[in-house]
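Data card: per-record layout.
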Amino acid sequence: MDYDRVDAVTFGQALTGLTVNLLVPSVAREAEFLAGVFGLALHQPSGDFAIVRYGAQTFQLHADGTYATHPLHALLPAPPRGLGIELRLHETDPDAAVARLPDYPDAVLLQPPTDKTAHGLREAVILSPAGYAWVPSRRL
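The structure for this 140-residue chain is written out next.
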């Protein structure tokens, strides 16, 4: 699929299985953070929407306002959002991701790169500008 040119109907009808859609106050800011810190690929970023790819996995960002008629809209909190959910980016170097954080002062380092020997991973926990907990990790 050509994610840079696919129209909304074709994209929507192509989705299968479990998909993730993150609601964010600013698509531009969250997209810039995801691309800059983790190297995620962005497609069709706009003020309201972006397709984001991590390897073969695809998810979406939608601006809060696009959910104005959705039942979730009235429940949207201010950041931090997604408490209790970790968005894990396996095979992403946590040290390299943390080294890029100074360019994103509205992101928060919750846990510096740490070896988690019980799971055989080195990981960090980073709160994105929208308040989601992203966990870059690599095998020890």
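Known properties of this structure: Helices lie at 8-14, 27-38, 94-99. The two ends are 34 Å apart (CA to CA).

See the next section for split statistics.
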